[in-house]
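TL;DR need structure tokens for one chain.
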Amino acid sequence: MLLSTDIWVGALIRRAELGGAFATVARKGDPRAGAVLVKAVDRRANTARLYSEATRGDGERFWMQPVRSDFEPDLDAYAERAARIDPDIWVVEIEDREGRHFLTEPVEGDPKG
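>> reply
TL;DR here they are.
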């Protein structure tokens, strides 16, 4: 059984805060079943990465980068387009001095874990 989105987002934010990062909900979606985008920002390097949840053919959940850019305005533009298509989507922003995302599921091409 999967957690409702609001509980999952709360756990991600808590995990990030325990790791010394700042995390916030930039856009709140459907509390029960909204999709989630996670933006991990590294202010020291002035870069960001966006992660979107996906499901493999075998049903395994993983995270991928829907935009290969590390330029924050590009990622914000993608999130805005996604919200117009899916008004139930959540956007979580994590600012970490190491640029970590704090996701526990597999992340495709993960440079920072």
